[in-house]
Amino acid sequence: MKQNKPTEQIEQGLIGLTRIKDQELKNDIIACWQRCWNESAWENLKDCPFNPHLSDVSLVEHVNCLTDLVLGAADSLEKHNPELKLDRQYLITGVLLHDVSKLVEIEPSDEGPIFSALNRQMPHATYGAMVAMAQGLSPKIANIILAHTKLTGATPDSPEAVLLHYLDYGMADVLRASRKLPLIMVGGSKFGK
To answer: What would the pLDDT profile of 33-44 be if each residue is shown by its tens digit?
Structure first.
C-alpha cells in the first residue's frame, strides 16, 4: 500500500475547491483526488499532464482553466436566458472530478508521459466515476464525470453535464489547434490513442 500523498497539494492546487460550500462534499472531492493520486506513479500532483500529447499543460492547470471557463459560461448563459438556473455546486463538482482518473490513466516514463494499462482496459473517466461512487457520491455526479467524454457512451443527463462536455472538448481542441495537432472535433484524436 502506497503512503498517502499530502492533501495540501490538492487543496492548494485546485481553485474550484474554494467555491464548494458543503465541507463534506469538498472532503469527498479531495478524497477522490487523493485516492487516484495515491494509486498513481506521480510524486508531485502538478507533474501529471492533462494529456501526454499536451504534456506542457498539467492536469491541475487544465481543471483550473476549465473551472474558470465553465463558471464564466454559466454566468453568461443565465444572464441571457433568465429562465435557466444552473446548479453551481454540481457543476464545479463535475469540473473538479471529470478528469481525476487521468492520474492513473497517464503515467510517467523515461520517454515522457504515456497512457497507462488502465487506460487501455476501460474508457477514459470510467475509473473516476467508480472512485466517486465508492466515495459515496451520487449517480448524478458519476454521470457528469462519464458524460464529459464521448468514449464512455454516457449521455449527459443535465444542462450542467452538457456544458462541461462541450467546454472540455472545446478547450482541448483550442490547445490542439495552437500546436497544429489533429482536432477532436473532426475525429483527429481519441484519448489514449
So the answer is: 999 999 999 999
Distances 138 to 28, 86, 130, 145, 182 between C-alpha atoms, Å: 11, 18, 11, 11, 35
Q: Which three cell numbers stand for residue 130?
A: 467508480
Cell of 122: 476501460
Q: Are 2 and 38 in contact (CB under 8 A)?
A: yes
pTM comes to 0.94
Three-state DSSP at 107 gives: strand
Residues linked to residue 106 through DSSP beta bridges, in sequence order = 115
Separation CA 74–CA 84 (nearest Å): 9
Distance CA 68, CA 63 (A): 9
What's the start-to-end Cα distance of the chain, in Å?
Answer: 30
